[in-house]
Write a structure and sequence with these properties.
Chain lengths: 430, 343
């Protein structure tokens, strides 16, 4: 009998979400059996509930009938405690961090439970969230206050009162701080109590474990996002059109913005109009209204087309048909010096075998991985993006996609299985 | 003969080097006129392999010099020894050049004959997204200036920088330029030490250099200044010695004087405005201050136009140790206001 794991994940197919699909790919390629405690009522932060095709004989979802995430947590704890004996190990997956709450409750009740905690993003101190944090415009920040404001303004009762009212009115502010405190405690407990911590890249591992003792650091397992070669349709070929097809698939917003890329395109239109006319760029997924307006205001809409989100398998076909795949990461430089996020789409890009150009911080997992597979990495500088685009389009830089086996989910799942066997003391006989 | 030799100091820059080399090699029409000297300064990453890959691909243009670690200055020294170009310039490996203008610039250099050729540059503070274009304000394009007749006061703070200057190689050799090794902040040595050897200058209408700012480990980062303050002191002292040797009748002494004032101000800023961890740092700056007073009393006194230096001297450099450096900040505020009113 294969060993059986209980996986706790808020997102899972048929919900079309990056985190859920990553979890599914790992489980599908693993040698163990899995029950996945999940839900399909809440589609927020996902594209839809349309991924019915993503199933596997060793993976059995249990859809909790929960109205909201708190209700789901309650039901998850109940389920986990009642059925603990059925499972050889449990794995909690964030996002959302609440899945760890369920696993933590089970571990606290049954300390002998083998618990693997997997992190997509940090629960607390998330640089992405810090960047979008709403701060009172009347707040005086840091020691540079006197350089930027007059002493009168800094000490003004009006400013102090406005700042106080702003914070008072913004209920989110209050909630936000309570939340930060709670999340910090949760993350700390998870890291200390679980038996194995999965990170998808070493930058995130270093960021999250920086202040922890060796005993916690030793529990870390690096398990990158991967591609599943079974999902690619081998009949789909790269576009041979005269126009170069560039595609971006996934989430964009005001922080993870393609604005610098659009500005680079404007420069391309001005400096190298022939190259520009030869482009067909499609962006599938979300995009901020500001960027949509930018497309219109700068008359880029005939070249850059914003398309509706597509199903996962459809997205892989689009990748295979493209000539160049674009990755855009947020510029987190105001908050941290290095990127710590590895977007799951990058693994799917690698699997498609098409060339990749990443716009990202030069220190970080995306930059390392794209360089490793032979792609082109650009900083967020408009000119750097422009230079790279020109050189790619004119064939003056070497670009390829080695489809590195390191990111093949079969190999990643094998690494995962071996680690579970090692820490669980499972061997071939038992 | 090659038209331009570019030295590319290379130390642990595997993430940046391709961008730099690709931009320099973009215009294939000038490759024959170009010599790229990639000086690997004992990198511990894959920088050398990347450089060699380019050398193999462009054997007539790219030359790799592999040497033990000796610092930024040592790479320029090594490059200058072998450079075959009529002109010489330095492009740091984490920076790049404007691909739309670099070819034109090399072609223009072919026709130039002045000892210094200036071009404008752009500073990219990449993490904050700030872009600052630097343009010389009071220098006409394509006009040959005699450096002995030039009105340096018209330059304001638009000095000659490493990012803007292209030198005639033979003049650098004649000046016996040898930068300090294993030392940061040798840019000012590169600008000032050969300066008296140069006789003419021209500004070309190109914006070539892209100065990439924002890496945490960059030497212009304030923490790096603090960590490497002894290097800064070494450079300051060498340039003070150089300044001392210049006869008073030399028309360019005033310009060098102004450059030194800027450098010395930076040195005091490191001690007075950045938070230094050790108490011993107070003794260091007091010793330097006394050295300056002995060596160059005029420069010493002129620095008192900065209120924070004046007050620090009066309080034996305890002034800056106030909570959050608040007194220094107040000083700056008044000084800035005075400067604005003066304008």
């Amino acid at each position: 009998m294969p060993k059986k794991g209980l996986v706790i994940s808020w997102y899972f197919p048929p919900i079309n979400s990056s985190e859920g699909i990553c979890t599914f790919k790992l489980l599908k390629n693993s040698e163990f059996e899995y029950d996945v405690f999940t839900q399909k009522n809440d589609k927020s932060w996902s594209y839809d509930t349309n991924e019915e095709g993503l199933t596997s004989p060793n993976v059995h979802p249990i859809y909790a009938d929960a109205d909201n995430i708190q209700d789901w947590v309650k039901k998850g704890i109940e389920y986990g405690i009642q059925n603990r004996e059925k499972y050889d190990f449990i794995m909690s997956r964030s996002m959302a961090p609440e899945s760890h709450e369920i696993a933590l409750a089970i571990k606290e009740k049954y300390p002998e439970t083998l618990w693997i905690a997997s992190f997509g993003d940090p629960i607390t101190n998330n640089p992405y969230l810090k960047l979008i944090e709403q701060v009172s415009p009347y707040r005086i920040r840091g020691t540079g206050a006197l350089e930027n404001h007059s002493i009168g303004y800094v000490l003004s009762w009006k400013r102090i009162l406005k700042n106080w009212f702003w914070n008072y009115r913004d209920k989110k502010y209050k909630k936000h701080h309570t939340r930060i405190y709670k999340d910090k405690i949760l993350q700390d407990k998870v890291l200390k109590k679980c038996d194995c911590i999965i990170f998808n890249n070493s930058y995130q591992q270093d960021y999250m474990l920086e202040n922890y003792p060796e005993a916690v650091k030793e529990k870390a397992l690096l398990l990158p996002h991967g591609y599943d070669e079974d999902f690619y349709d081998k009949k789909v070929k790269e576009s041979k059109d005269k126009k170069t097809k560039i595609s971006y698939l996934g989430h964009l917003d005001e922080t993870r913005t393609p604005k610098n890329f659009l500005q680079a395109l404007e420069r391309l239109r001005e400096q190298k109009p022939k190259l520009f006319q030869n482009l067909e760029i499609n962006i599938y997924g979300n995009m901020s209204d500001k960027d949509k307006v930018y497309l219109i205001d700068h008359e880029l809409y005939e070249t850059v087309k914003f398309q509706k989100p597509v199903k996962y398998l459809e997205s892989l076909k689009i990748m295979q048909q493209s000539n160049l795949l674009l990755l855009v990461d947020a510029n987190l430089g105001k908050v941290i010096p290095k990127n710590i996020f590895y977007a799951a789409k990058l693994a799917d890009y690698i699997g498609s075998g098409r060339n990749i150009m990443a716009i990202t911080m030069l220190d970080g997992p995306s930059a390392d991985i794209v360089q490793e597979v032979g792609g082109v990495v650009s900083s967020h500088s408009v000119e750097d993006i422009y230079n790279n685009l020109v050189m790619i389009l004119e064939g003056k830089t070497s670009i390829t996609n080695h489809r590195n086996e390191k990111y093949n989910m079969k190999n990643i799942a094998k690494k995962f299985d071996n680690e579970v066997k090692k820490i669980g003391g499972f061997n071939e006989k038992n | 003969m090659k038209t331009l030799s570019v030295v590319i100091p290379t130390y642990n820059v595997e993430k940046y080097l391709r961008r730099c080399l690709d931009s320099l090699l973009y215009d294939s029409t000038v490759l024959e006129d170009l010599e790229l000297l990639v000086v690997n300064d004992g990198s511990k990453d894959h920088s050398l392999e990347i450089a060699k890959e380019y050398e193999k691909k462009y054997p007539k243009t790219v030359v790799v010099i592999d040497k033990e670690n000796g610092g930024h200055g040592s790479t320029i020294n090594a490059g200058l020894k072998v450079a075959k170009g009529k002109y010489f310039r330095v492009i740091d490996s984490d920076d790049w050049v404007n691909i739309d203008q670099f070819g034109e610039y090399v072609r223009a250099l072919k026709k130039c004959d002045t000892d210094i050729v200036l071009t404008n540059y752009t500073e990219e503070r990449i993490y904050s997204g700030e872009i600052k274009e630097f343009h010389y304000q009071n220098i006409e394009f394509n006009k040959v200036y005699d450096l002995n007749q030039f009105d340096y006061s018209s330059m304001g703070k638009d000095y000659f920088f490493m990012a803007t200057s292209t030198y005639k190689t033979e003049k650098l050799r004649k000046a016996q330029l040898e930068l300090d090794e294993k030392t940061f902040y040798v840019d000012m040595e590169y600008i000032l030490l050969p300066f008296l050897e140069m006789q003419s200058m021209m500004l070309l209408d190109f914006n070539i250099y892209r100065y990439f700012i924002g890496r945490m480990d960059q030497s212009i980062n304030i923490q790096s200044y603090v960590r490497n303050r002894s290097h800064h002191e070494k450079v300051a002292k060498r340039l003070l010695e150089f300044y001392k040797q210049i006869p008073n009748k030399e028309p360019r002494k005033a310009y060098i004087h102004n450059c030194l004032l800027g450098l010395l101000n930076t040195h005091y800023i490191i001690y007075c405005k950045a938070r230094l961890p050790e108490k011993a740092s107070i003794q260091e700056i007091i010793a330097f201050d006394q050295y300056l007073q002995r060596q160059e009393p005029n420069l010493y006194l002129e620095l008192e136009s900065h209120d924070y230096i004046k007050w620090n001297r009066k309080t034996k450099f305890r002034f800056s140790q106030t909570k959050n450096n608040i007194l220094s900040r107040i000083c700056d505020r008044f000084e800035n206001r005075r400067t604005k009113e003066g304008k």
